Each structure stands twice: as structure tokens, then as C-alpha cells.
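Can you please make up a protein's amino acid sequence together with its fold in C-alpha cell form to help me picture the idea?
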Amino acid sequence: MSAGQIAALIAAGAFVVLVLLLAIPLLKLGRTLDEATIAIRKAHESSDPILLGANETITHVNTQLERVDGITANAQAVTGNVSALSSVFTATLGGPLVKVAALSYGLSKAVRARRRKQEAKAAAPARRRKK
């Protein structure tokens, strides 16, 4: 064996060692990718029921929102009716009611003033007698 052949054998051995050293990480990487593929597949399979449940929930929520929208529209109509009724009441009875209240206040004030005058007149002769 010549020196070139020995060098070729050493180079071939080093190449085999290099291939073996690189094959081990590649095999481990292949297993890791297989496990990742299995995990993704399981996640996909388990996400279908979750998505179906979410879809049903959203449908139910939309139904409830439509009901709330109807209730809100009815409440708005009632508010408008109450506002119109109060306007009619104010226009019809508000003015006369205020006038009646003012008249009763004025009459009660006048009656009190007259009573005070009468009491003052009745008290005046009694004061003169005491002197």
C-alpha cells in the first residue's frame, strides 16, 4: 500500500464518520417533524367540535340580539308615546291648572290678610280699654 492509498482510506473513513455524525441529527429531526405533524393533526381534529360549538353560540347570540333589538324598538315607541301624551296633557291642562293654582294662592293670601286686619281691629279697642 502506498501513501496515496492510505490517505484515501483515511479520507474514506473520515467521510463515513462524518456521514454517521450527520445522519444522527437528521434522523432525530425527522422524528421531531413526524411528532409535529401528529400534533398538528390532533389539534385540527379537536378544533372542529370547538369551532362548531362557537358557531352555534354565535347563532344563539345573534338570535338574542334580534330580540333585544325588537325590545329596544318597542321601548323607543313607548317613550315617544309618553312624550306625546305629556305634551298633550301640558297643552290641555297645564295652562288652566297653573291658573287655578295661582288663583287659589292669591285667594288664600287675601283671606289671611283680611283675617289679620280683623284681628288687628278687634285687638285695638281692647288695648284702649286697658289704658
